[in-house]
Amino acid sequence: MRYIYAIILTLITLSGLAQQATDHFFQEANQYYAQAKYTDALSTYQRLIDEGLASSELYYNIGNTEYKLGHIGKAILYYEKAKLLAPNNKSINTNLNIAREKVESDILEIPDFLPVRLWRGMAKTISPGMWIVIQAIMGGLFLYGIFLFYNNADRSQKLKSIGIALLGLILLLVSYSAGKTAHNLLHLHDKGIVIESSTMYSAPDSRSEEIESLADGVKVNILDTIDVWYKVELMNKNTGWIEVQTIERI
After folding, report:
1. Which pLDDT value is given to residue 54?
2. CA distance 239 to 102
3. Residue 68's Cα: distance from chain center in Å?
4. From CA 203, how far away is CA 30, in angstroms rounded?
5. Which residues are CB-neighbours of 203 under 8 A, at least 6 positions away?
6. Percent of the chain beyond pLDDT 90?
7. pLDDT-based confidence at 182, cuts 50/70/90?
8. Among the four residues 68, 110, 115, 128, which has the most C-beta atoms within 10 Å?
9. Residues 44-63, buried b or exposed e (16+ Cβ, 10 A)?
10. 175 vs 123, higher pLDDT
11. Which range, 75-79, 194-198, 231-235, is most confident?
12. What is the pLDDT of residues 63-80, one digit of tens each?
C-alpha cells in the first residue's frame, strides 16, 4: 500500500511540475509579445503546442502574434481554433473579423437557403448519438401502433393505432435525417484556412485548368483528399482542387 501512495504522490508532484513549466513558458511568451518580440513569442507559444497544450487563450495569443507578424492566414487559422473552444468570446470574434478584413479576396459567401439553415441549426442542437436514441424511441412508437392495430377489433381503436404508427414512422424518418445531418456537420465537413497564396484547379493536377487564385486567409470546406491534393469548396460554393501544403485544417 505504501508503494501505491508513493506512486500517486510522485505522479501528483510530476503533474504539478509540468503545470509550473507550462505556466512559465506561457508567461514568458506573453512577455515577449508585450516587448514586441513577436518571433520569440511565437516560438515559445509553439513549444506549448508541441507539448500538446490546447486552449482558447493559447490559440488566441498565437493568432495575435501571427497577425503582428503579418501572417494573416495563420492568424485567422488560430482565431478559428480559439473560436471552436470559446465561440462566444468577444475578443476572439472581434480580432477574427479584423483579420478577415485583411484578406485580399473577392470571394463572396453565398448563404444557404433559410430552410436549409433552419434544418441544420435544429439538427445541431442534439448530438448524433442522441438522435439515434430518438430514432429508437420513434421506431418503438411505430411498432406499438402496429401492435395496437392487430390486437384491437374496434374500428375506432384501429384508426387510432394507424395514426400512432404513421406518427411514429414520420418522426422516425425525420429523426434519421436529422441525425445524418448532425453527423455530416460534425465529421464530414472539415474546414481549413489557406495559409499561402495558391491556385485552385479543376482536377488534382497542376496541369489542369486553373479555376481561380486563392489568397492567404481564405476559408474553405475540405471535401476530399487524393495524394497531395485537397478537394475544397469555397464560401461561394465553387469547388476545385488545391495542394495540401497550402492549407491547414482548423
Report:
1. 82
2. 23
3. 25
4. 44
5. 209, 241
6. 40
7. confident
8. 128
9. bbeebeeeeeeebebbbbbb
10. 175
11. 75-79
12. 999 999 999 999 999 999
Euclidean distance between the first and final Cα of the chain, in Å?
A: 46
pLDDT at 119 over 90: no
The set of cell numbers assigned to 30 is: 506573453
Grid coordinates of 138: 420513434
Burial (CB count <10 Å: 0-12, 13-18, 19+), residue 18: exposed
CATH of domain 190-249: 2.30.30.40
C-alpha cell at 76: 485567422
Topology of domain 2-100, per CATH? 1.25.40
Tell me the C-alpha distance between 224 and 216, whole Å. Answer: 21
What DSSP string runs through the chain?
-HHHHHHHHHHHHHHHHHHHHHHHHHHHHHHHHHTT-HHHHHHHHHHHHHTT---HHHHHHHHHHHHHTT-HHHHHHHHHHHHHH-TT-HHHHHHHHHHHTT----PPP-PPPHHHHHHHHHHHTS-HHHHHHHHHHHHHHHHHHHHHHHT---HHHHHHHHHHHHHHHHHHHHHHHHHHHHHIIIII-EEEEE-S-EEEESSSSTTS-EEEEE-TT-EEEEEEEETTEEEEE-TTS-EEEEEGGGEEE-
Q: What is the pLDDT of residues 1-47, one digit of tens each?
A: 554 444 444 434 434 434 555 777 789 999 999 999 999 999 999 98
